[in-house]
Amino acid sequence: MGSSERKEREKAELKELILDTSKRLLLKFGKHGLSVRKIAKEIEYSPATIYLHFKDKDEILHELMEMGFMLMNKYMVPAFAEKDPSKRIYEIGRAYIKFGLEQADWYDLMFNSDEPMKHVEKCREDWDEGMALFNFLTITCNEAIEKYSLKGYDAQIIALQLWSVVHGLVNLALTDRLGIVQPSDQKILIDKVLDSTIHCLFKK
Amino acid sequence: MGSSERKEREKAELKELILDTSKRLLLKFGKHGLSVRKIAKEIEYSPATIYLHFKDKDEILHELMEMGFMLMNKYMVPAFAEKDPSKRIYEIGRAYIKFGLEQADWYDLMFNSDEPMKHVEKCREDWDEGMALFNFLTITCNEAIEKYSLKGYDAQIIALQLWSVVHGLVNLALTDRLGIVQPSDQKILIDKVLDSTIHCLFKK
DNA sequence: GTTTTTAATGAACAATGTTTAGTAAAAGAA
DNA sequence: TTCTTTTACTAAACATTGTTCATTAAAAAC
């Protein structure tokens, strides 16, 4: 006895190594540089070994997705501290966009990829990182609605509207559609749209 | 002579056959069912023959993209006919969303895919179908701004804001993020967000 | 020392996009 | 017609991808 504990620890360490390596490959070479075989080569194990720790490639992607939300939360910290609701919404928006543009591969994995969502059974359960963020936005919208006594506003609809704008903006930027339509500085353009959105919601 | 003309016609016909088949495969099996080898098998030629008519798979995707805009235009026809600018904006938004949800594979190809944009040299030139649509939206926004005498509004920013909202909504819906956040009827939810967006822009 | 459990892999399968050398047929020239 | 050149096409190969399974080597349990 006792050796079984060591075994489990070693097993967990290898799993962690696989995830760390996946993360590194994603950061270095993007989603196209992340393959099961490359991970295997990197950690100097055979590809089949990966499948002793993960059912799927999707399962790896799914765990990376969770890591992505940890990273995103770091971007959100200053925004969460903001007292004024409409200003908090603005800061959340800015942080979201900043994260999306700076961490394009993470963003894509977390918000655009089908694979880790469809094939992993606990998809709903594990996207609650995303849901928590959305709920916080909804609460903030509620605060803003009360503060400005906006009647006929549904906080959840407003939250979704805000999410759609920033999600749309980030995706348009990342897929090079923004530059075609308006070749000026994209960041300024994006800022203006976010300004306009919040202005027309809360500053009238 | 004369036979050379027939040759060229036959060549063009084969190219058209490849594109038609690609289109059919995309519609039937989605983007994952569309491979060079499947196209080849379908038209009963070898895969290498495809490369006599197209430089790349990307080039095929690119031509499909153009077809997609033709299809999208059909969705837009009723909206274009609308006289009132704010109502026209609303109808464009609805048509855009309808197209996105009903023709998910086309939408993905036209608005999300990197490949046909990055590797084909004439990317800018050929996305002018998309640009034309955006320009029309911008013009309509201008009309609305004048009609409601909205000061300090930039038509292009408003147009981009609108595009971002619908693009974001469609993408959230297509990648199953909407249902997680709010499991009620997605179409109604999307409609409410579009309503809210236009209402807060033009109806105050 | 023997048996059983575990960890790890090599090799195979079915896909993918793409290239190249080679062939067969058609077209053009004599 | 015969010879040559151009054209249309393909078989085979290459380098990838995710995934599975029979097998082996080693460690653990008895």
Please describe what this structure looks like.
2 copies of one chain form a homodimer. By secondary structure, the first copy, chain A, is mostly helical. Chain A folds into 2 domains: 1-54, Arc Repressor Mutant, subunit A, CATH 1.10.10; 56-202, Tetracycline Repressor, domain 2 (Orthogonal Bundle). Chain A is 80% helix and 0% strand. In chain A, α5 (85-102) runs antiparallel to α9 and α5 (85-102) packs antiparallel against α12. The mean pLDDT of chain A is 91. At the A-B interface, α9, α10, α11 and α12 of A face α9, α10, α11 and α12 of B. The structure holds a DNA duplex (30 and 30 nucleotides).
CA(first)-CA(last) distance of chain A: 71 Å
Using CB atoms under 8 Å apart, which protein chain pair has the greatest interface?
A: A-B, 42 and 42 residues
Structural class assignment of chain A: mainly alpha
- Assign the CATH superfamily of the largest domain in chain A: Tetracycline Repressor, domain 2
Give the second-level CATH assignment, the architecture of the largest domain in chain A: Orthogonal Bundle
**How many strands, what sense, and barrel or not for the largest sheet of chain A?**
none
- Kindly identify the CATH topology of the largest domain in chain A: Tetracycline Repressor, domain 2
SS elements, strand count of chain A = 0
Number of domains of chain A: 2
Order of helices and strands of chain A: HHHHHHHHHHHH
In what range is the share of β-strand residues of chain A?
A: under 5%
Residue-averaged pLDDT of chain A? 91
Counted by DSSP, the helix tally of chain A is 12
Could you list the spans of chain A in which at least 5 consecutive residues all have pLDDT below 50?
Answer: none
